[in-house]
Design goal:
- It is built from 3 helices and 7 strands.
- By secondary structure, it is α+β, with helices and mostly antiparallel strands.
- The chain has one domain (about 5-125): 2-Layer Sandwich (Alpha-D-Glucose-1,6-Bisphosphate, Chain A, domain 4).
């Protein structure tokens, strides 16, 4: 099995950090764009896609700024993170995604994020 590599992508989002944040850390918000269903219990998020469940632990949370999840069945160094970045001069808001994938699957994984973020933007009405 090849080693997973960290990658980062950034998306401009026309939303306030406060509103965007609720879509990144609350089960209801995540269900609207990230997964078919999301439930939370004791910092463990259960994400469901097409009746397939995956569990992730919420490992870092900074209000209106950042959420980091660690898949329970993934390699120890791997996580996925969604960080809200706001430009101090223009107040433009961007969403920075950090994730891990094998070299062969990075392009596919980026495409999945592109699709999910497009869906998030349409959900936000941004």
């Amino acid at each position: 099995m090849s080693e997973k590599k960290k990658f980062n992508i950034e998306y401009e989002i026309k939303s306030s950090p406060r509103i965007l944040y609720t879509f990144l850390n609350e089960a209801n918000g995540l269900t609207q764009w990230f997964a078919d269903d999301v439930s939370v219990r004791d910092q463990i998020y259960t994400f469901t896609w097409d009746d397939e469940k995956q569990n992730a632990k919420l490992v870092t949370l900074k209000e209106n700024k950042l959420v980091r999840f660690k898949w329970l069945d993934d390699e120890p160094q791997c996580y996925f993170e969604m960080e809200i970045i706001q430009d101090e001069l223009t107040n433009d808001v961007a969403l920075s995604i950090t994730d891990f994938a094998t070299e062969e699957t990075i392009a596919e994984r980026k495409q999945i994020w592109d699709n999910q973020i497009d869906y998030l933007i349409s959900t936000l009405g941004a």
